[in-house]
Fold this protein.
Amino acid sequence: MQNTTGIRRRALACLRIMALAMTIVADASGAPEPPLSLADASRLTIARHPRLAVFDWRVAALEGERQNAALRPATSVTFDAENLLGSNELRGAQSAELTLSLSSVIELGGKPTARLAVVDARMAQTEAARQAEALDLLGEVTRRYLSAQVLQEKVALSAQAQALAENAYELVSRRVASGATPQAEGLRAQADLARAKLQHATMLSELQSSKMALASLWGAESIEFDHLEGDLLTFADPGSFEELFQRVAESPAIRLFSAEQRLRQAAVDLERARSRLDIGWSLGVRQFAASDDTAMVAALSLPLFTASRQQGNLQTALAQRSEVEYRKQASLLELRATLYTAWQNYRQNSSTAMQLQREVVPLLEQALAATRDAYERGAYRYLDWLDARQELIQTHVAIIETASEALLSLAVIEQLSGVSIASATGAADTKQSGTTP
């Protein structure tokens, strides 16, 4: 009979807790707003963040440079007048020689093609930089989204803790009124309830700030979503470390080095083309005033020592090309170490969070129920019941924080590899919903 009574009391307590939690959430949310997913946040940020808009102007500038690079050498018109305003026979213009000519340069060695190749390589590098910047920006979106999601879970947990404290205060107050419990325990229960309310208010404030930080990524001036979608305890299998590192080697960050290598090679080709001489030419008509005759005039000019004068520039271009490969290898070494740390942290923290949820929480829930029953019978003190309740709440906090660390590590893995792990694996391998008591 006592067991049946205890079950009924716990059922009624759970109903009151759920009702209070729903009331708190309804009061806090106000007018309903649509939920926000990580995909929505990513899409809005990519579409509106100015860090990506600058690349459009860089491409426009390079298109202008490409037009200039495709131009042939300019053609000049020259008018010469000789033997004017002299003395004796050369007085006035009676012996003048007037020449009208066109002149330009014939480029040899494929210089126009080489110039275009440099601009095209710079455009490819700009596109690779855009992709790398977008990946970094998406990483920031994920971090802020997870930060807000963690606070959202903590708000729900603090609401449950407040409901538990309210229920405990009611029970202790009844026992104090009946003389079964000292007045001091009633005061402790009242203080615990006040602390729970303060903690919940603090969590709500921090959640709003975190949501605003997230919304600012796409230029929003207010929070236009109600809650964040997603489950902190949904973990995907990232695959083996070597598979992940292979993706890193093909990621936008490394492709940026490849684009720079192509640019440096194009610069080398341009310097080699410039080492080939250009032929200057001039062609025109000369008129002799003294005899009223005309004649054609032509000239060619060849610069000397062109190849030797370009050796310094060519050496610089070759050195810059070789430097890129070493910087690429150094970056791969650093990325490998970062990836391994994130991979290990994700595996460890996700496993820890799941074990706490599956193995520890059920035991603590049973202990809390048993402690409450014992307190109602007068076998335990209020502090014993409070300790059991706090231990359960702290375990849920640990689950939230551990799951958050795991998902932040997963975000690092995705940013380094340039691939969404959840999308790549198709579905999460482990999932356990519910992070609140």
Observations:
- The longest strand covers residues 97-106.
- The chain has a mean pLDDT of 84.
